[in-house]
Amino acid sequence: MTVLEVLNAASEYLRKKEVESPRLNAEHLLAHVLGKKNRIDLYLEFERPLGEGERAPLRELIRRRSEGIPLQHLLGTVDFLGNIFATDARALIPRPETEQLVEIVIAAGPFEKIADIGTGSGVIAGSLALKFPHAAVTACDISPAALDLARENAERHKTTELITFCESDLVGSLAGPFDAIVANLPYIPQGEMASLSREVRHDPDLALDGGPDGLDLIRRLAGEAASKLAPGGLLALEFGHGQAGQVFEILSSHNFRDISRRRDYQNIERFLTARHG
Ligand SMILES: C[S@@+](CC[C@H](N)C(=O)[O-])C[C@H]1O[C@@H](n2cnc3c(N)ncnc32)[C@H](O)[C@@H]1O
């Protein structure tokens, strides 16, 4: 079978197994098996015959993908703002929306002292350290496993010297003041956890579960962040669909000003920035 025939067969199989974007998934997985940096490189080789040595590992990956293992866990990496980060079951798979959160913070910078609360795989802290190499970045998480992954990503990007990693319940163990605090905390309402897609259920519960209305952690952070922010310091948050109004109210009640609600590329209100004091 040629590259094109294998791709067609793999996409059809994934489609029958109700995997979203079956063709894209098949292309990513075949590019991974063939060691291609970019799936588009496959387009130059559509007529190339594939031997069993290449088809067997692809079959295995397609089988696991059809069982709901996320594509990113099979590839082991994600591209986040043009940098490659490792991703696995130790932390949330970074989402494309979060790239926008980082872009918002970058546009408001530069900053000297930044904290990323709930760093997960470390994509926010890592991207900000790469963008602001003169800043002191603190990355904290309550999950030691996530922090291990974030440290590995810092080694990958040679930002270990720029980032202080800290196991902490929100900002509890951190020494401020920071001129920017960024957080993409869990925000799924508990009652919705059971109906998440099979792919999302591969993310740790600790990265998703935001309590009864999804806002437990954001509510707590709004209260605690004030004591760790320099006067006029920036708080930048990501949250879920339909939560912008409540997050606005929470921040208003904690002496934040210049509160600005921002939409993601799907036109969903997804981020909020505010200044303290
Ligand atoms: C939605 S994930 C975001 C991960 C990463 N920042 C990203 O955007 O891809 C939320 C993260 O917050 C962490 N977390 C949950 N509760 C926490 C707490 N009380 N204090 C600190 N981190 C917490 C989770 O372990 C998880 O890594």
Nutshell version of this structure?
This protein is of the alpha/beta class and 277 residues long. It has nine helices and nine strands. It has helices at residues 3-16, 22-33, 52-66, 71-75, 96-108, 123-131, 144-157, 216-225, 244-252; strands at residues 77-80, 83-86, 113-117, 136-141, 163-167, 178-183, 229-238, 256-263, 269-276.
Characterization of the model:
With 277 residues, this protein is α/β, with parallel strands linked by helices. It folds into 2 domains: 3-67; 77-276, Rossmann fold (3-Layer(aba) Sandwich). Helix content is 36%, strand content 20%. It contains 9 helices and 9 strands. The protein has helices spanning 3-16, 22-33, 52-66, 71-75, 96-108, 123-131, 144-157, 216-225, 244-252, and strands at 77-80, 83-86, 113-117, 136-141, 163-167, 178-183, 229-238, 256-263, 269-276. A 7-stranded mixed sheet has the order 5-4-3-6-7-9-8, sandwiched between helices. A two-stranded antiparallel sheet has the order 1-2. Helix 1 (3-16) packs across helix 2 and helix 5 packs parallel to helix 6 (123-131). The longest helix is centred in the N-terminal third of the chain and has 15 residues, at 52-66. It is elongated and about 65 Å long. The chain starts with a helix and ends with a strand. The model has no long low-confidence stretch (mean pLDDT 97). Bound molecules: S-adenosylmethionine (SAM). S-adenosylmethionine (SAM) is lined by residues 91-92, 94, 98, 117-121, 123-124, 140-143, 146, 169-170, 184-186, 206-207, 217.
